[in-house]
């Protein structure tokens, strides 16, 4: 019985070097140029809003496709396109999930997807930028700005593919997209918090 912990420690020690040798760099100039697609297993879109003045409610989307082209010599010439499966919304409260999908709100039977397509990219710092684009949600298209941070890029230590990671935030008013249910009791402003890993193709 006493050998089991020792065996476990030895096993962990044996695999640790593989995880310790990440080549991720925060220098955007070292990112490989070209086309990237999102790794769905490491990508989330989290939304939050004020609930009745008492708390902040959260939900997320993890079922979405995204494609990016990146030009390290001229990042402003890069592009981003995203398509979100609205039926994949998760709040961990099944009744609320069903309500979000109903005609009161997202109406996923009529509007099964939301999309974002970049129209301009502005570099604001060594690892930051602003991605302006058109968000189509609930059949309405409005401009939205993603404040973006480049986390790092390099060869993934496990799958040996070149990966680039980003975080982003944005704020929007749901009423701008025809989602006015329970206003103004439930907050109009929605905050998006996004984290993604993209794999070079």
Give your account of this protein's structure:
The chain is mainly β and 201 residues long. It has a single domain (3-200), classed as Lipid/polyisoprenoid-binding, YceI-like (Lipocalin, Beta Barrel). Helices cover 13% and strands 51% of the residues. The protein has helices at 3-20, 94-101, and strands at 34-51, 55-61, 64-70, 79-85, 113-125, 128-137, 140-155, 162-173, 189-200. Strands 1-3-4-5-6-7-8-9 form an 8-stranded antiparallel barrel. The longest helix is centred in the first third of the chain and has 18 residues, at 3-20. The chain is elongated and about 50 Å long.
Can you give me a brief rundown of this structure?
The chain has 201 residues and is mostly beta strands.
Protein traits:
13% helix, eight-stranded antiparallel beta barrel, Lipocalin, signal, Lipid/polyisoprenoid-binding YceI-like domain-containing protein, mainly beta, 201 residues, Lipid/polyisoprenoid-bd_YceI, TTHA0802/YceI-like_sf
CATH superfamily placement = Lipid/polyisoprenoid-binding, YceI-like
Order of helices and strands: HEEEEHEEEEE
* CATH first level: Mainly Beta
Q: Which fold does the CATH topology refer to?
A: Lipocalin
Task: Please state roughly what percent of the residues sit in beta strands, choosing from under 5%, 5-15%, 15-25%, 25-35%, 35-45% or over 45%.
Answer: over 45%
Report how far the terminal alpha carbons are from each other: 48 Å
**Which strands sit side by side, in order, in the main sheet?**
1-3-4-5-6-7-8-9
CATH architectural arrangement: Beta Barrel
Biggest sheet character: 8 strands, antiparallel, barrel
- The number of distinct β-strands equals 9
Number of spatially distinct domains: 1
Shape: elongated
Query: Which secondary-structure class do the elements indicate?
Result: mainly beta
Mean pLDDT reading: 92
Helical residue percent? 10-25%
Low-confidence stretches: none
Q: Radius of gyration, rounded?
A: 20 Å
């Amino acid at each position: 019985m006493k050998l089991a912990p020792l065996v476990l420690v030895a096993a962990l020690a044996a695999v640790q070097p593989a995880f310790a040798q990440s080549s991720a760099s925060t220098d955007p100039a070292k990112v490989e140029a070209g086309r990237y697609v999102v790794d769905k297993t490491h990508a989330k879109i989290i939304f939050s809003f004020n609930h009745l003045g008492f708390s902040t409610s959260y939900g997320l989307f993890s079922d979405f496709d995204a494609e990016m082209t990146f030009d390290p010599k001229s990042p402003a010439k890069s592009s981003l396109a995203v398509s979100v499966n609205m039926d994949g919304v998760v709040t961990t409260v099944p009744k609320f999930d069903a309500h979000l999908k109903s005609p009161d709100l997202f109406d996923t039977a009529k509007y099964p997807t939301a999309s974002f397509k970049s129209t301009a990219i502005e570099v604001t710092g060594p690892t930051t930028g602003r991605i302006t684009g058109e968000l189509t949600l609930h059949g309405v298209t409005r401009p939205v700005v993603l404040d973006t941070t480049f986390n790092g890029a390099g060869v993934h230590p496990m799958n040996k593919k070149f990966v680039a990671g980003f975080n982003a935030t944005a704020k929007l008013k749901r009423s701008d997209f025809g989602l006015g249910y329970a206003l103004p009791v439930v907050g109009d402003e929605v905050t998006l918090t996004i984290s993604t890993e993209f794999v070079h193709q």
